[in-house]
Amino acid sequence: MATNRTFTMIKPDAVKNGYIGAILEKIQTAGFKIVAMKYTKLSKGDAETFYAVHSERPFFNDLVAFMTSGPIVSAILEKSNAVEDFRTLIGATNPEEAAEGTIRKLFAGSIQENAVHGSDSDENAAIEGAFHFSGREIF
Ligand code: RTP
Ligand code: MG
Protein backbone atom coordinates (compact mmCIF):
# COMPACT_ATOMS: atom_id res chain seq x y z
CA MET A 1 0.00 0.00 0.00
CA ALA A 2 1.29 3.48 -0.82
CA THR A 3 2.27 5.78 2.05
CA ASN A 4 -0.55 8.22 1.21
CA ARG A 5 -3.06 5.81 2.76
CA THR A 6 -4.31 5.06 6.25
CA PHE A 7 -6.75 2.56 7.75
CA THR A 8 -9.70 3.39 9.98
CA MET A 9 -12.57 1.72 11.81
CA ILE A 10 -15.72 3.41 13.06
CA LYS A 11 -15.92 1.51 16.35
CA PRO A 12 -19.02 -0.25 17.80
CA ASP A 13 -19.92 2.65 20.13
CA ALA A 14 -20.14 5.16 17.28
CA VAL A 15 -22.11 2.72 15.11
CA LYS A 16 -24.59 2.09 17.99
CA ASN A 17 -24.91 5.84 18.62
CA GLY A 18 -25.85 6.52 14.98
CA TYR A 19 -22.69 8.45 14.07
CA ILE A 20 -21.61 6.60 10.90
CA GLY A 21 -22.88 9.32 8.58
CA ALA A 22 -21.55 12.23 10.63
CA ILE A 23 -18.10 10.65 10.96
CA LEU A 24 -17.85 9.84 7.24
CA GLU A 25 -18.87 13.45 6.53
CA LYS A 26 -16.01 14.74 8.70
CA ILE A 27 -13.56 12.36 7.01
CA GLN A 28 -14.56 13.35 3.48
CA THR A 29 -14.76 17.07 4.26
CA ALA A 30 -11.18 16.84 5.59
CA GLY A 31 -10.07 15.68 2.14
CA PHE A 32 -9.77 11.92 2.59
CA LYS A 33 -10.88 9.76 -0.32
CA ILE A 34 -12.48 6.41 0.59
CA VAL A 35 -10.69 3.71 -1.46
CA ALA A 36 -12.16 0.70 0.42
CA MET A 37 -15.05 0.37 2.88
CA LYS A 38 -17.17 -2.33 4.52
CA TYR A 39 -19.73 -2.85 7.28
CA THR A 40 -18.55 -5.86 9.24
CA LYS A 41 -18.11 -7.37 12.70
CA LEU A 42 -14.84 -8.56 14.22
CA SER A 43 -14.66 -12.06 15.71
CA LYS A 44 -12.78 -12.50 19.01
CA GLY A 45 -9.85 -13.93 17.04
CA ASP A 46 -9.91 -10.99 14.60
CA ALA A 47 -9.79 -8.45 17.43
CA GLU A 48 -7.05 -10.33 19.29
CA THR A 49 -4.95 -10.43 16.12
CA PHE A 50 -5.64 -6.81 15.16
CA TYR A 51 -4.72 -5.54 18.65
CA ALA A 52 -1.93 -8.09 19.34
CA VAL A 53 0.49 -5.23 20.05
CA HIS A 54 -1.62 -4.43 23.15
CA SER A 55 -1.91 -8.05 24.38
CA GLU A 56 0.11 -7.39 27.57
CA ARG A 57 -1.78 -4.18 28.43
CA PRO A 58 -4.27 -4.27 31.34
CA PHE A 59 -7.11 -3.09 29.08
CA PHE A 60 -6.60 -5.80 26.41
CA ASN A 61 -9.52 -8.09 27.36
CA ASP A 62 -11.89 -5.14 27.74
CA LEU A 63 -10.73 -3.79 24.38
CA VAL A 64 -11.37 -7.12 22.63
CA ALA A 65 -14.82 -7.40 24.27
CA PHE A 66 -15.68 -3.85 23.21
CA MET A 67 -14.44 -4.20 19.63
CA THR A 68 -16.48 -7.41 19.16
CA SER A 69 -19.64 -6.00 20.83
CA GLY A 70 -21.24 -4.92 17.57
CA PRO A 71 -20.64 -4.06 13.93
CA ILE A 72 -18.01 -1.62 12.73
CA VAL A 73 -17.25 0.24 9.53
CA SER A 74 -13.71 -0.37 8.27
CA ALA A 75 -12.13 1.71 5.54
CA ILE A 76 -8.92 2.58 3.75
CA LEU A 77 -8.48 6.32 3.21
CA GLU A 78 -6.25 8.18 0.77
CA LYS A 79 -4.80 11.66 1.14
CA SER A 80 -1.33 13.17 1.19
CA ASN A 81 0.25 12.65 4.64
CA ALA A 82 -2.72 10.37 5.44
CA VAL A 83 -1.55 8.70 8.68
CA GLU A 84 -0.52 11.88 10.48
CA ASP A 85 -3.38 14.03 9.16
CA PHE A 86 -5.96 11.40 10.13
CA ARG A 87 -4.54 11.11 13.67
CA THR A 88 -4.89 14.90 13.93
CA LEU A 89 -8.50 14.71 12.65
CA ILE A 90 -9.51 12.06 15.21
CA GLY A 91 -7.76 13.62 18.23
CA ALA A 92 -6.27 12.14 21.40
CA THR A 93 -7.10 8.58 22.52
CA ASN A 94 -8.94 9.98 25.55
CA PRO A 95 -11.77 12.23 24.30
CA GLU A 96 -11.40 14.42 27.39
CA GLU A 97 -7.93 15.33 26.06
CA ALA A 98 -8.95 15.57 22.40
CA ALA A 99 -8.85 18.98 20.70
CA GLU A 100 -12.08 20.83 19.91
CA GLY A 101 -13.62 19.79 16.62
CA THR A 102 -11.87 16.42 16.44
CA ILE A 103 -13.90 13.28 15.79
CA ARG A 104 -13.20 11.87 19.26
CA LYS A 105 -14.08 15.16 20.95
CA LEU A 106 -17.37 15.24 19.06
CA PHE A 107 -18.39 11.58 19.08
CA ALA A 108 -16.43 9.54 21.69
CA GLY A 109 -17.61 8.71 25.19
CA SER A 110 -14.51 7.38 26.97
CA ILE A 111 -10.86 6.40 26.52
CA GLN A 112 -11.98 2.92 25.46
CA GLU A 113 -15.20 3.70 23.59
CA ASN A 114 -13.51 6.35 21.50
CA ALA A 115 -15.47 6.18 18.25
CA VAL A 116 -12.68 5.64 15.71
CA HIS A 117 -9.38 3.91 15.04
CA GLY A 118 -6.55 5.44 13.04
CA SER A 119 -3.32 3.67 12.02
CA ASP A 120 -0.22 4.97 13.81
CA SER A 121 2.35 4.46 11.01
CA ASP A 122 2.55 3.84 7.26
CA GLU A 123 3.73 0.30 7.97
CA ASN A 124 0.76 -0.44 10.25
CA ALA A 125 -1.66 1.22 7.81
CA ALA A 126 -0.55 -1.28 5.16
CA ILE A 127 -0.78 -4.24 7.55
CA GLU A 128 -4.18 -3.21 8.90
CA GLY A 129 -5.62 -2.48 5.45
CA ALA A 130 -4.49 -5.88 4.18
CA PHE A 131 -6.02 -7.55 7.27
CA HIS A 132 -9.48 -6.19 6.37
CA PHE A 133 -9.50 -5.98 2.56
CA SER A 134 -8.45 -8.09 -0.40
CA GLY A 135 -6.86 -6.41 -3.42
CA ARG A 136 -10.09 -6.44 -5.41
CA GLU A 137 -11.95 -4.57 -2.63
CA ILE A 138 -9.58 -1.58 -2.88
CA PHE A 139 -10.24 1.06 -5.59
P1 RTP B 1 -6.48 3.40 17.96
O1 RTP B 1 -5.32 2.43 17.84
O2 RTP B 1 -7.80 2.73 18.20
O3 RTP B 1 -6.52 4.38 16.81
O4 RTP B 1 -6.25 4.31 19.24
P2 RTP B 1 -4.91 5.00 19.75
O5 RTP B 1 -3.78 4.71 18.83
O6 RTP B 1 -5.27 6.42 20.03
O7 RTP B 1 -4.71 4.26 21.13
P3 RTP B 1 -3.91 2.91 21.46
O8 RTP B 1 -2.93 3.21 22.53
O9 RTP B 1 -3.41 2.27 20.19
O10 RTP B 1 -5.06 2.01 22.10
C1 RTP B 1 -5.91 1.23 21.28
C2 RTP B 1 -7.31 1.34 21.82
O11 RTP B 1 -7.40 0.68 23.08
C3 RTP B 1 -8.39 1.32 23.88
N1 RTP B 1 -7.76 1.80 25.11
N2 RTP B 1 -8.32 1.63 26.28
N3 RTP B 1 -8.86 1.63 29.05
C4 RTP B 1 -7.75 2.22 28.60
O12 RTP B 1 -6.98 2.77 29.34
C5 RTP B 1 -7.49 2.19 27.17
N4 RTP B 1 -6.44 2.68 26.58
C6 RTP B 1 -6.61 2.43 25.26
C7 RTP B 1 -8.94 2.47 23.05
O13 RTP B 1 -10.10 2.01 22.36
C8 RTP B 1 -7.80 2.76 22.12
O14 RTP B 1 -8.23 3.46 20.98
MG1 MG C 1 -3.30 2.75 18.18
Automatic annotation (TrEMBL):
Needed co-factor(s): Mg(2+)
Domain Nucleoside diphosphate kinase-like as annotated: residue spans: 3-139
ATP-binding as UniProt keyword: yes
Gene3D superfamilies registered for this protein in UniProt: Nucleoside diphosphate kinase-like domain
Binding-site list for ATP: 11, 59, 87, 93, 104, 114
Gene Ontology BP annotations: CTP biosynthetic process; GTP biosynthetic process; UTP biosynthetic process
Enzyme class: transferase
KW Nucleotide-binding (keyword) present: yes
EC numbers: 2.7.4.6
PANTHER family: NUCLEOSIDE DIPHOSPHATE KINASE, NUCLEOSIDE DIPHOSPHATE KINASE DDB_G0292928-RELATED
Subunit architecture: Homotetramer.
Protein's UniProt name: Nucleoside diphosphate kinase
Annotated organism of origin: Neptunitalea chrysea
Gene: ndk
